[in-house]
Amino acid sequence: MIYLDYSATTPVDERVLDSYCKTTREFIGNANSIHTLGSKSKELLMQATNQIASILNCHPKELIFTSGASESNTTAIKGVAFKYSKFGKHIITSKLEHKSVLEVMGYLSNIGFEVDFVNILPNGQIDLKNLEELIRKDTILISICAVNSETGYKQPLKTIRQVINKKNPNVIFHSDLTQALGKTRFYLNDLDLASFSAHKIYAPKGIGILYKKRDLQIDTLIYGTTENCPFRGGTPPLPLVVAFAKAMRLISDKLETNIKKCEKLKAELLKGLSKYPIQINSNELCVPQIVNFSLLKIKSETFVHALEKYEVYVSTTTACSSLEESTVLKAISNGNKDVSTTSIRVSLSHLTTMSEIQDFLEIFDKVWNELLLK
Amino acid sequence: MKQVILIKYGELTTKKDNRNFFIRTLKKNILNKLSNFKFDIVDDYYRMFIIPSNDDIDLIVDNLKNIFGIHAIVIALMSEDKSENNIKEISLNMMRELNYNTFKVETKRSDKSYPIKSMDMNNIVGSHILKNTNYKVDVHNPEVLLNVEIRREAVYIYNSSIPGLGGYPVGTLGRALLMLSGGIDSPVAGYLTIKRGVELYYLYFESRPHTSIEARNKVISLARKLEKYNSNGKLLVVNFTKIQEAIYKNLDPSYLITIMRRKMYTIAEKLAKRYNCLAIVNGESIGQVASQTLSSILSVNDVTNYPILRPLCSFDKLDIIEISKKIDTYEISILPYEDCCTVFVPKHPVINPELKHIYEEESKFDFEPLIEEAVKNVEIVDLKEKISDLL
Q: Which CATH architecture best describes the domain A14-252?
């Protein structure tokens, strides 16, 4: 099997799984209980939270554990919209966002909010001039992801923050960092809100984080809050938090090495793909772990299924919107359907080997020729 | 051309002969704090430079913000090519990346052999930017102040500066012993003392079983917060139960607090001497509570000739709370655990204690053996947190 869909989800690291199991077995107390078992769990919860805070360079109280990035995105966007609607109902986002962002935006525009989409330049970055023009007095929120999940385009968060500060410093800046975590560096202080997910960094599914700047108030989405979860209701899922903290430590310790490795893999992959008449959509502004290209002549779905017969796993667009036309590529290619309906995403990891890339290229060649002859 | 961090020293500039010692200590403290990062560090009499190997500048700057002895932190572009054209181009590119309307150029030329004078350089760079952008010059209130520093080895160009914490590098001015109760004030007093370059040990009086393990853990958490600024501090825990019970059972209840505090300072002095601390620090603020009136301070201070520093003596409570929030101790301090100052509080503690009466009361009981025992059995608590191996 050649798994090249790490941006959809990752296999759980054995060491992380081990901590998950041990915590589940040994820490049965609810961190909210006042007895010894509870305080033992609470202490571990605090250590795990502190560890994550120190890796992300923020205060532990700024971290809210959620069920995943979709919940984090929803909470952030709805939370700001409902809390600040009296100051304005204008929101800015982009076509590069994950479904969970775009759908909340759709919902909000149905109930009277005005949502603008910032233009995207041909290189995949948002148009900062256009962003500056879009920001108004009644703009309350800007949500732009750090790394687009389909193409790997990175956005200049720091510059976006500068534009916001200049035009209207009251605007709250949210960024979905799901695809940035473990793939690239970022600086949380540039943001007011940020979303993370554990299962993209070799931890189990079912946990995410919403980073919320300490003095920022937003509406809560899930009620039933407690001392240990002062913002989001629910019993703290200790084994998942521990697993997340451990995975984050493991991935951040190796960030530099992993980036370098993926850069080499990506170069090899691109070299192999250069002999086909296809369009490479990822460029040098992208994270090295994601390589996106459009086959132009073959529909993406057909190709993914053809590769699957050889036990090669890649994506069409993102896992969450696989059967639709790519909105991102549609935006970048000026609506060229040949580009947006034939795209393939190959996502790499430090677990990927050079020989897997070479095998992939061989199988790619077979499938390419099979499908073109049909 | 490289991005570098330029560190401007704090009050060190007033030091002459021992300036190098201060700079060396600051450098050591910075290396300690940044042990997780890869970088080169260079210092001289006026500036320190950090040249990061990775894209870590923001994170390194965040760490530098917690180090005393730094007046300002600047992210600068450094280039060894000091030619007029190169300086013009770097400046122009820097201005293009910013999003403002007005600017001013300020050149400093510490390399006096450099052929172009500072004023002339201001004009050269300024007019180059004017010609190629929409910026306007505003010499009084510019949105961007573009600094060009021409030094012997390179030119440094930057446009903004981040304030540092000020103060002196920790460890340059000896060690003191902080009385840490668990309240809001003492951690703030400790922080302000560290700021003056003084390294701290912490002293906590425990009255088990009247005070709980939570109260002790709270003090440990507070000490850990201060360790972010301090280095290698130790927490000394004194078992105070017997002394406190003896006072409670034998002496005038309205003088309980005064006499208890006298015993604490007697012990503190002995421990300060043992651990090479040159002063005792507390969080007293004049008049805040009955034990902090001037006459209370006088009657407690009466037991020792040791210097007692009271950095908060003139602070209002609200100002103290503001600092405690800044250093992240406030929320720990307000946790509701009894400490040994609150377990046996008399209904009406004396506000103006009299020394004569104190001496009479103290003569009713021989505290000496209990004090010796408490000092002998002091417990040293490790402030390094033991992290679960599950993480």
A: 3-Layer(aba) Sandwich (3.40)
